[in-house]
Specification:
The protein is mostly beta strands. It is built from three helices and 30 strands.
Length: 268
């Protein structure tokens, strides 16, 4: 398209009258539509949809081309807190979440700090050089991070999901490969007490609770002592030479002793 034709098209767009919705003397929203009734406006001119708070501040802006969210230079969706600060920015191309040079979704706290970032390519969560989702506590410390490749939770060199306490200590870790809980050398899911001690660990292979010759689930007291153990093979409780659920047996023995009036001292 020649430069003259582009200029004429933009000029025609400028002349189009928007659809304005007013209630009780206040503008609620403004829409730009084409001859087919689709939300449409040249992105370089401005958003095709604008919504307002009662105080007159903009609540939401969306850029549409022929009823598809679309903008090449900047976010296609922008929402605002009532105080005017940006709440969320979403990058869309041809109605798909998409951005190559940064996160496609960015959420902000009201104080302006980033709340969450997520990376999308062609409407799929995807990032090769770091976590595809990063969430933050309001104080700026990381809340959790997730690694995604081709819309599947995936990471080979470490946990694909890491969540943190507000003080920065790790809360839990999850190992995933191609969207499945999976780890051959060590537990695939680990949760920690706030002091850093392990609270429980679970062994998974190919999205199944699985471990040979040792418990697949181990839970600990905060002092590090074992609380109970469970044995699993191929996602089924399993132990040939002793109970599969040590904690369950202990509870049953304790119940029977209490019922007949025995204590540990009586046994000794």
């Amino acid at each position: 398209m020649s430069l003259l034709k582009q200029w004429k098209k933009a000029f025609v767009e400028l002349l189009k009258s928007p659809i304005i919705t007013v209630e009780n003397g206040l503008i609620l929203k403004i829409e730009y539509r084409n001859e087919y009734g689709e939300l449409h406006r040249i992105p370089g001119i401005g958003p095709a949809f604008i919504e307002y708070y009662e105080n007159g501040n903009v609540s939401y802006e969306e850029y549409y081309v022929n009823d598809e969210r679309h903008r090449l230079k900047g976010p296609a969706c922008i929402s605002y807190h009532e105080n005017g600060e940006i709440r969320c920015e979403g990058y869309w191309v041809k109605d798909e979440r998409h951005r190559l040079d940064g996160p496609a979704d960015i959420w902000y706290y009201e104080n302006g700090n980033i709340s969450c970032e997520s990376y999308w390519v062609n409407d799929e969560r995807h990032r090769l050089d770091g976590p595809a989702i990063i969430s933050y506590h309001e104080n700026g410390n990381m809340r959790y991070e997730e690694y995604w490749v081709d819309n599947k939770k995936h990471r080979l060199e470490g946990p694909a999901y890491i969540e943190y306490y507000e003080n920065g200590n790790v809360y839990c870790e999850e190992y995933c490969v191609n969207g499945k809980r999976h780890r051959l050398e060590g537990p695939a899911f680990i949760r920690y007490y706030e002091n850093g001690n392990i609270r429980y660990e679970e062994y998974w292979v190919d999205n199944k609770k699985h471990r040979l010759d040792s418990p697949a689930i181990i839970r600990y007291y905060e002092n590090g002592n074992i609380h109970y153990e469970q044995y699993w093979v191929n996602d089924e409780r399993h132990k040939l030479d002793s109970p599969a659920n040590i904690f369950g047996i202990m509870k049953m023995v304790t119940y029977v002793m209490k019922h007949i009036g025995l204590t540990v001292r009586d046994i000794d």
